[in-house]
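dude i think i finally got it to work??
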Amino acid sequence: MNKQQFQRELDYGAAVSIATSMLRRHLITPDEFRRLKAALIKKHCPVISSLQETAPAVPSPPKQVICSPKTVKEDCSRE
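look at this
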């Protein structure tokens, strides 16, 4: 991998990370995330990151665990 390819991988990874964060915060829809990711692949032409396309296209939102004083300690986990 040359320096240009490496830079494209970094740029793509950073952009997808930002898009994922926006999706999890409900700033963009899952459809917008898919379209954005497709546009980023077209723009950056990542080689290695493209191999990860077998993973889910839209990340699942993090679990939200609500803990109350009555909750048993073992049942109250945080990510």
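Confidence is low (pLDDT under 50) at residues 71-79.
im so relieved honestly
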